[in-house]
């Protein structure tokens, strides 16, 4: 699995921009979890990354929006520092319901 940080800034001054924003968020939440309003930590395979990247690019208006994809180093605990409210859940570990 590849761990990524996906950040986006989608213009919401128009209805089409608000629609793009919702689409981008839904794509990201399908592969990971929101850690801030427009920031997601995502785990994907190589094939899923190619498909997700293409969907994001197809949705993006390059004159108004921006999306950044960063690869995270493993283990997350060693390379990510979170302060304040951090509701990250490691879905690769056992979950107790």
SSE order and pairing:
Elements: E1 2-9, H1 15-29, E2 32-36, E3 39-44, H2 46-59, E4 66-71, H3 76-79
Antiparallel strand pairs: 1-3, 1-4, 2-3
Helix pairs in contact: 1-2
Helix content: 25-40%
Number of strands: 4
Sheet with most strands: 4 strands, antiparallel
Q: What would the principal axes of the Cα set say about the shape?
A: globular
What is the CATH C level class, in words?
Alpha Beta
- Output the strand order for the largest sheet: 2-3-1-4
Spans where pLDDT lies below 50 across 5 or more residues: none
| Structural class assignment | alpha+beta
CATH topology grouping = Alpha-Beta Plaits
CATH architecture: 2-Layer Sandwich
Strand content: 25-35%
Radius of gyration, in angstroms, nearest whole number: 14 Å
What is the terminal-to-terminal distance? Answer: 24 Å
Number of domains: 1
Question: How do the SSEs run, as a string of H and E?
Answer: EHEEHEH
- Mean pLDDT equals 87
Question: What can be said about this structure in brief?
Answer:
The protein contains three helices and four strands; from the N terminus they run βαββαβα. The chain is of the alpha+beta class. It is globular, with a radius of gyration of 14 Å.
Provide structural commentary.
The chain is of the alpha+beta class and 97 residues long. The chain has a single domain (2-75), classed as Alpha-Beta Plaits. The protein is 34% helix and 26% strand. The protein is built from 3 helices and 4 strands; from the N terminus they run E-H-E-E-H-E-H. It has helices at 15-29, 46-59, 76-79, and strands at 2-9, 32-36, 39-44, 66-71. The chain has a 4-stranded antiparallel sheet, covered by helices on one side. Helix 1 packs antiparallel against helix 2. It is globular and about 40 Å long. It starts with a strand and ends in an 18-residue tail after the last helix.
């Amino acid at each position: 699995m590849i761990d990524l940080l996906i950040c986006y800034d989608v213009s919401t001054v128009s209805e089409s921009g608000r629609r793009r924003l919702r689409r981008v968020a839904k794509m990201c939440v399908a592969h990971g979890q929101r850690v801030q309003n427009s920031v997601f930590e995502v785990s994907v395979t190589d094939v899923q990354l190619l498909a997700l990247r293409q969907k994001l690019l197809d949705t993006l208006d390059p004159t108004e929006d921006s999306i950044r994809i960063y690869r995270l180093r493993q283990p997350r605990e060693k390379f990510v520092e979170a302060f304040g409210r951090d509701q990250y859940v490691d879905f690769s570990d056992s979950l107790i319901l």
